[in-house]
Design brief:
By secondary structure, the protein is of the alpha/beta class. It is built from 13 helices and 14 strands. Helix 4 runs parallel beside helix 5 and helix 10 runs parallel beside helix 13. Bound molecules: pyridoxal-5'-phosphate.
Amino acid sequence: MVDLKGQYSKIKPEIDSAIQEVIDNTEFINGSAVKNFQKNLEHFLSVKHVIPCANGTDALQIAMQALGLQQGDEVITSDFTFIATVEVIALLGLKPVLADVDPDTFLLTPENIEKLITPKTKAIVPVHLFGQCCDMEKIMDIAKKYNLFVIEDAAQAIGADFTFSNGKVQKAGTIGHVGCTSFFPSKNLGCFGDGGALFTNDDEIAAMLRSVANHGMKVRYYHDHIGVNSRLDTIQAAILNVKLKYLDEYNAARQKAAAFYDNAFKDNSKIQTPVRVGNSNHIFHQYTLVAKGVDRDALKSQLQEKGIPAMVYYPVPMHLQNAYKYLGYKENDFPVSENLCKIVISLPMHTELDKEQLEYISKTINEFTR
Ligand SMILES: *Cc1c(COP(=O)(O)O)cnc(C)c1O
């Protein structure tokens, strides 16, 4: 699904010396590479504050803690996402309120969000799934209307651009009150272990995020709130500093591979290629097909047999996960996401796919579905 080794081999000298420098300086915790990466990412995203942290899941948790959400508060998010989004809501004693998604784009829709708002709703967590943005303009309008916080889960969309109706362009994760991302190795900007970050344009929120990520303290050994210990490792920051320079290139390489797939499948009526939204570009964290006239699981086994990795993101919707049964949802509550779990399949998608690989993958699929 990814080729991290191929990607590394192209920038090996740069990466190796960045790592060696951290070791030579023994700046293992909060070393200068962390601050440098923070500044560089702020510049890249055109956002006032980047707060690095240990991983994307922590980022979401820190955001919710820092915004002062209280036990029982309702947080609306997608039923079709990675578990981390829902997990942190539950972990903090907040109530996950799940919403169905758009059948073509797989994204949480403003309409589905608004229907679920109650006097207890405090926040919305749009997930920019697979690399394109939810309709942040409408979601921010809803948030304003009902006085809600918006925490963007931009773990799969770092570098994606959202365009407002007035032409203004903003990066994914910098539009809501807080944006969260992950630097898990397979993400579009991945490090060599775990990493994450929060983004905000609000000075006060930034101070709270920093404090919560650092044991709830602003002044050393004076703890104002309950916090966590969540730091971006200096070695990871040094690696990210190198890779950030290539992020636009990496996202363009993914888009190029996606365009190849699109073209290869354009006459195949049995599968639907990824539908693009009008107001965001797509940076293809995943290239996800919808199997229409073909058995998804049979297609997956066929690909496996031919040596092609393919994955199902995601096989079970959030509301049917065993751990979340206590929320009281049942089958058929979210028909779109339930159906997507049965028919989606993600193809290999990364920066190192060459023409031969793309041809082999698409030919195998086209032959099987003919
Ligand atoms: C990867 C991911 C996360 C969590 O990131 P980690 O760094 O693995 O904790 C959260 N949300 C989504 C949508 C993700 O894809």
